[in-house]
């Protein structure tokens, strides 16, 4: 039987285990990336492990999330990351260089290599034929320390592409279509592998848009073959030497197949408030638009922004629309400035903002109350824009640009405007934004820790009896944004868990933090897909700080489940989902004989007041059991030293 491309790459990196769906394996990690909002924790953990020399081929620390520096806190974080990066042999990308995934694609991604990033959109690298996985910060710290990462082998879902996209239909519409078909849970436990004749009609930046939003499917990662288009992209970046051709075997067998005819797709939008709430622009109708935001790690490539510039050229942004554009990297911004595209944007009335995450993470440009905001980003969860009652629609750069001109949601296919074909350009090498580590001598490299950097909370060994009272009864699809908001108020405190914990779950229940402090030991009841969204481990560390012992939910998102285990918090799944309705705030739950029970696939919980018993599925791997018994990953590592 032939092999899938995903399994070929995994096989090349296999360190331990048998490569078959559901098995636990350890794989070699070639590259890591961190961004600033998760990065401070990663490097605090790396320091705590006492690592002498990182084991990856290349690791980069990016500053892209919180670049506003409205107070000393951001600057302290940046300085800490810069100093610790220098000490451990990690490249440091200064604020202003751009967004981590765009920069990794341009400068460091290599087909066939593995990348682990402390950001859920790390799979963007799959556009270059990498196995690029988003993970919790601790996993990334460990990958740097040990050069490996352990995971449960996912199934492989093939998306077979045929045909060719028509003008005004773009890669964003492809992934929105896939999201419409599979939903935000459709990729859980899977690698999405793109194949078929249609692949060669898509550029690397198109492919990267698609693999970027594979994160919204809940997929472990997504991957494209590496072909002549990959070679052309690498050549444009001055890195043709990194090219290697990669594809699945012709007779590869897949666990599932989804067929997509690119020629039949139309411009789409994800309606509020979920990336899979997708419909065609025509069906949604001509709603009035207040704000258009173009950029983010999904759609800020050179080709994306050149299309936007061409649409805006000689036109004017509608008087009622605020249009903001953030390029993905300093290289792209410099190229747009050189070739006049930037002038086309500015002359049309666009606001050019820094090449960083910016409004995607709610750092500025929050829309007005009740606004309709069209965004080329990847997430439209309620409140993520910073405005709770705003309606955010996720669209392609083409749809965003033409709608900014017309002032209404517009299907470009019927606009009568002709779109020229945009080709990738040659880029000049420029590493002026990169600080290189100096050798491996750490003796004269001090780590700089300002007053905003607080140690991360540590759990204790799992006791024989785990008790807690229900402090939250949450619904389905709770996001990590819901658990630990990351808006502009709080981003400066990403390295200060005691402060952040005061805001845990504040969007859902503003008394949560106080209730936890009163309860001492807490239990969270959750619905389906608990912890979806970003990889931020703060969503586990803040509950840990507040004394949460376990989360009992109908199902968990993959990265958040790992983050909970890393923190020594038990993620338990209802054996009978009907039990979900049985719980109320304040009710006590106890796990007796917990140290033995965690080794079993099913755990018995008891309501000590009524004596009623509940079954919960645990199914922890051997490694997870060791971590839970030790009270989290760092304790486990220390125990093994
Ligand atoms: Fe940044 Fe938004 Fe991507 S926060 S990394 S641009 S999802």
TrEMBL record:
Keyword Lyase tagged: yes
Domain of life per record: Bacteria
Enzyme Commission number, as recorded: 4.2.1.3
Keyword Lyase attached: yes
Keywords: Lyase
Protein's UniProt name: Aconitate hydratase
Organism (species): Anoxybacterium hadale
């Amino acid at each position: 039987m032939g092999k899938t491309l995903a399994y070929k790459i995994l096989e090349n990196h296999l360190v331990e285990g048998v490569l078959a769906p559901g098995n636990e394996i350890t794989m070699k990690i070639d590259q890591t990336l961190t961004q600033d909002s998760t990065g401070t924790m990663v490097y605090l953990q790396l320091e705590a492990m006492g690592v002498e020399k990182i084991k990856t081929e290349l690791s980069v620390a990016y500053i892209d999330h919180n670049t506003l520096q409205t107070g000393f806190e951001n600057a302290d974080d940046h300085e800490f990351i810069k100093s610790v990066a220098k000490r451990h042999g990690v490249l440091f990308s200064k604020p202003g260089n751009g967004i981590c995934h765009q920069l990794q694609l341009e400068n460091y991604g290599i087909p066939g290599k593995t990348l682990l990033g402390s950001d859920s959109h790390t799979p963007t690298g799959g556009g270059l034929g990498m196995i690029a996985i988003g993970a919790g910060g601790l996993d990334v710290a460990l990958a740097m320390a040990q050069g490996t990462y352990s995971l449960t082998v996912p199934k492989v879902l093939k998306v077979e592409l045929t045909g060719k996209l028509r003008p005004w239909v773009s890669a964003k519409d492809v992934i929105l279509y896939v999201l419409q078909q599979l939903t935000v849970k459709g990729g859980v436990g899977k690698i999405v592998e793109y194949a078929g004749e249609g692949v060669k009609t898509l550029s690397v930046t198109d492919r990267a848009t698609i693999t970027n939003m594979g994160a919204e499917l809940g997929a472990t990662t997504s991957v494209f073959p590496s072909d002549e288009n990959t070679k052309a992209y690498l050549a444009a970046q001055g890195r043709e030497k990194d090219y290697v051709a990669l594809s699945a075997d012709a007779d590869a067998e897949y666990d599932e197949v989804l067929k997509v005819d690119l020629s039949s797709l139309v411009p789409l939008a994800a309606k509020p408030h979920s990336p899979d709430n997708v419909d065609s622009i025509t069906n949604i109708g001509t709603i009035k638009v207040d704000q258009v935001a173009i950029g983010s790690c999904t759609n800020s490539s050179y080709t994306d922004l050149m299309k936007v510039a061409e649409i805006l050229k000689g036109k004017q942004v509608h008087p009622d629309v605020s249009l903001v554009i953030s390029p993905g990297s300093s290289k792209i911004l410099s190229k747009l400035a050189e070739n006049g595209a930037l002038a086309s944007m500015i002359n049309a009335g666009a606001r050019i903002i820094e090449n960083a995450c910016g409004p995607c993470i709610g750092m500025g440009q929050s829309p007005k109350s009740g606004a309709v905001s069209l965004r080329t980003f990847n997430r439209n969860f309620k409140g993520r824009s910073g405005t709770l009652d705003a309606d955010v629609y996720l669209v392609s750069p083409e749809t965003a640009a033409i709608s900014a001109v017309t002032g209404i949601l517009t299907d470009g296919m019927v606009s009568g405007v002709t779109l020229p074909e945009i080709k990738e350009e040659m880029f000049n090498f420029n590493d002026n934004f990169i600080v290189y580590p100096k050798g491996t001598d750490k003796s004269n490299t001090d780590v700089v820790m300002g007053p905003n950097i607080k140690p991360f909370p540590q759990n204790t060994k799992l006791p024989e009896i785990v008790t807690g009272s229900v402090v939250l009864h949450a619904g389905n699809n709770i996001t990590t944004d819901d658990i630990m908001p990351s808006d502009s108020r709080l981003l400066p405190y990403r390295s200060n868990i005691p402060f952040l914990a005061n805001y845990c779950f504040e969007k859902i229940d503003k008394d949560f933090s106080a209730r936890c402090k009163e309860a001492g030991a807490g239990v969270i009841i959750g619905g389906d897909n608990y912890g979806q969204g970003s990889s931020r481990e703060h969503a586990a560390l803040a509950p840990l700080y507040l004394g949460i012992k376990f989360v009992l939910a109908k199902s968990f998102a993959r990265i958040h489940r790992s983050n909970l285990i890393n923190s020594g918090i038990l993620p338990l799944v209802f054996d009978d989902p009907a039990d979900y309705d049985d719980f109320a705030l304040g009710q006590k739950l106890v796990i007796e004989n917990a140290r033995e029970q965690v080794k079993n696939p099913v755990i018995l919980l008891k309501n000590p007041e009524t004596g009623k018993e509940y079954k919960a599925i645990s199914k922890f791997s051997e490694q997870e059991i060791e971590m839970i018994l030790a009270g989290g990953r760092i304790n486990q590592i220390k125990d093994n030293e």
